Write the C-alpha cells for this entry.
Amino acid sequence: MRLTLIKRISNLTTKSISMRLILTLWLFMFITTLCNAQTKISGKVIDQLGNAVSGASVSIEKPKILFSSTKSDRSGSFNFSLVKASSYRLKISATGFSLQEHDIELLKDTILIIQMESKPMELETVAVQFKKSLIETRSDRRVFNAEGSAAATGTDVLEMLAKIPGIQVKNGNVSLSGKGIAGVMVDGRQISLSGDDLAEYLKSLSAESVAKVEMISNPPAGFDAQGSSGLINIVLKKKSDEGFKSSVNSTFSQAAFLTTALGGNMSYKKGKVSLNAGLNFRKGSLVPISESTVFYTNNSWNTIDKDRNYRTVPSGLADFAYSISESTDIGTSFSTGFTDFHSTEVIRSRSMLSSDVTDALINSDAQAKMNSNYYAAGLFLKHRFSKKGNQIGFNADYFSFKDDKKRNFDNTTLDPNGSPTPLDYARFLSGSGQNIDLYTLRTDVEHVLKLFKFSYGGKISLIRNNSNMSFLTLLKGDYSPEPDQFNKFSYKENTSALYFSANTNLGKWEVQMGLRAEHTFNEGISYGEINETNYIQFFPTLYLNRSTWKESKISFSYGRRIERPAYKKLNPFRWYTNQFSFTEGNPFLSPFYTNNFELSHNYKGLWNISLSLSSANNAYGDVNFTEQGTVLQVIRPINFIERKQYLVSNSITLNPADWLESVNQVDVFYNHSTSSLQQVPDKSGSGAYLSSSNQFSLNSKKTWLAELSLDYYSPNENVLGKTNGRGGVDLAVRTFLAGKKIQVALLASDVFKTRGEIREVVVNGIIQRYNNYYDTQQIRLNLRYSFGNQKVKVQERKGGNEEERKRSN
C-alpha cells in the first residue's frame, strides 16, 4: 500500500466563526457517528493504475472498538467528519485487493490518497468484519443490533421487541422504559396502528428480517411529531451483495403448544441493479390466561378467561433499486402479510358474597375468528448534487390495513348449587371490520454550507378509515341486532407539515435547532353525527452536544411532541366483551402534548447516564367505570391526566474479556399524576427497571456462543393503576458449522415463568385486580442455512411514509 499525505488543513478556530443561531428552525438528521471530534478525514481509494475503486470498505478503529466506517463512492472518494484528534488504525478492504491497515495520527483535517494492491488468483473476497455491540449508545438514540442477538432468532417482531432491554410491550402498545407509549416505525415509516391492530401487524413480521432497532427518546424535527414519548424504528435488512446471497431457516417453538416457522431471503446485485426479497410463514397457537376480580361493597365478581388462540401468518417483502447515474438512485419496495386467526375461550365467572359464599355462576364459551392483511408499497428517488453533502429525496408511499373480526359466545347462568336459573342461557354475536388506507408524499433536502448544515422539507399524509361494528342476540333461532348496536364509522385525517433545521459546530460545541409545523384536519362520522377538528401546532427541537475530556460528551435535548388518539377511541359505538362489560369510544377525545427534556453524558459510546423529564397536560387514558349495586363495567377513554415523569437511566457495556460482552441497564423513575376525574384519585409512585444481556464465546474460533439475559420491573404505581414486580430469565446457545454457513440455535424464554403481570386499579372507590399471563415460557430450536457470496457490499436506504402507521386501533 502507498499512503500519500496530500496536505493538512488547519481547523477553523472559534474566533473566526461569527454567526447568529436561527430560532425558527427544524431538524432532520440521523447522527450515526460519535460527535466528540474536531478533525475531518477525506480521501480517495485508487488501484495500481490510478483508477478509482468504488465500494471499498474504509474504517477507523481503536483497540476492540469500531469508531466509524464508510464506503468509497463511484469516484473512489470517502469522507469522515467530526473525528476526535487522536491515534487510529485505518483499514481498507475491497473485492480483488489485499486488506490494507495503517496506523495514523490525526491532528488536523487530513486528505489521503490510498492505493490498493491487486490480489491475483483470489477466489474469495477478503473482508474485515467487526463485531457490533449488542446495544450501541449514540448521541441521539440507542441501537439494538438484532443480527447479533438470539432474541431475533425464529420469532416475530412483537416478541423480539419485548426482549430488547429498555422496551416494554403491553396490550399491543410499545413503550420505552420509564416513559409512555412510543411511536413505532418500520424503515422510517410510522405505523398508523395501535393496540391489537399494531400487535397483529408486528406479529406478521419475521424477526429474521430485522437488522436493528433504534430507540429514539427525543426525535429531531425531520420526524413526525406523533408519539409522545419518542420513537422506535425497526430497520429491516437491506443489504446487497455483488452477486447472489440467500438463506433459509426453520424454527420449532414449544410453549403450551407447538408453533412452527419457515422462511427465506435473498439479495442480488449486479452493476446498477440491486434486489432484496424475503418470504416467511408461521403457524401455531398460544394459551394466554387472564383473571379479573372486582371488589364491590357486598360481593366480589371473579372472572377467569383461558384462551387458546391459533394463528397462521404468511408474509413477504421485496425491494428493488437502480442507479441511474453516479448521483441519482431510484427504487421501489413492496411488502404484504396475511393473518388467519381463530380462538376458543373458556370463561368462568363467579359472584362471591363478602362471607366467601358463592352467590351466582356464569359459564361462557366463546369462539373468535379474524382475518387481516396489510399491503405497503413505496417509490423513492434520491439525487446527490455535485457539492458534497447536498442532496434531495422524494418519497411516495401507500399503506393499507384491513381486518374482519367475529366473536360469538354462549352464556349459561347457574345458581350457587350449579343448577341452571330460569333465564339460564343466552347467545351473542359481535362483529367488526375496518379498512384503513394511508397515502404519503414527502420531500427532504440537505444543504451544506461552510458553517452550517441545513435540512428542510415537507410532507402530506392522507388517512382514510371506514369501519363497522355490530352486536347481535340470538332470538328464536336468528341473530337480531340489539337496539343501537349496529354502527358504521367513517374517519379521515389530513396532515401537512413543513420543517427546517440547522446544524453547526462552535469549537467543542455542536448545536442543532429545529422547528416543525403540522396542520391537521380530521373528521369522524358515527350515528350520522359529524365531529371535526382543525388545528396547527408547532414542535420545536433543540440539541446541544459538547466534547469534553477523554472521549466524553455531554448532551442536552428538548422536543415537543403530540399523541393523537387511535381511530377506534373516537368511535362512540359499544363493543361488548360479554353482556356485563363493554368498551366505547369518545368522539370528543383530544390529542395531548408532551414536553421532553434530557441531559446525558456519554463515555466512548460504552457508558451513558441520562436524566430526563417528560411533562404532559390533559393526557388521556382508558378508565374502567364501575358502580356499586351493578356488575356492569364500562371502559371509556377520557382526557383527565396531568403528569410529570422523571427518569434517571444508566447503561454500560463491559468487555472484561475477549470471550464476554455484557450490556447492563438500570433505570429509576418517578411518576406524579393528577386526575381531573372525581372517581380516579391522584397518584404518585416510583419504580425501577434492570436488565443485563450477556454474550459468551465458548471457544477460540467463536463458533460456539451462549447468551444469558435477565430483566426485572419493580412494582410501580400511577393514576391508571398499580403493577406488581416481575421479571424473567432467557437462555440461548448457538453454534456455527460448515464455515458459518449453518447456524443451530437453542433458546429458552421466561425460564422460571415469572413474567406474569398483576395490576390493581381503583375507580369510584371500587378495587379492580387483574392477573395476566401470556404464555411466555417456551423453548425454541432454530436452524438456518446461508449460501451464495457471503462477502457483501452494503447498500441501505430508508423509505418515506415515516410516521403514519400507528394509530388504527
